[in-house]
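This section describes the prediction task in plain terms. A model, or a person checking by hand, is given the sequence of a single protein chain and must write out its three-dimensional structure as a string of tokens. No templates, partner chains or ligands are provided. The sample shown here is typical of the held-out split.
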Amino acid sequence: MTMTNKEFAKSLTRAQTKYLWDHIRRYDGVEGVSAKEQFQQLVAYVLNFLTGDHKMEKKIYAKAIASL
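The expected answer:
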């Protein structure tokens, strides 16, 4: 069973949530995709756009994989 975007978001710690929200807002409008659209596809966003270069990104990415 897969998690919904809402359940995935609830699984994040406060620090992870802040990091991810800041990341999404930073890239709002890039390639014509709004932050609102990215929030609607949260797990897909994580899997496609977090590179794992940062320790926090690795933890968020792992939770996204686990949510599938």
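For orientation: The chain has one domain: 5-66.
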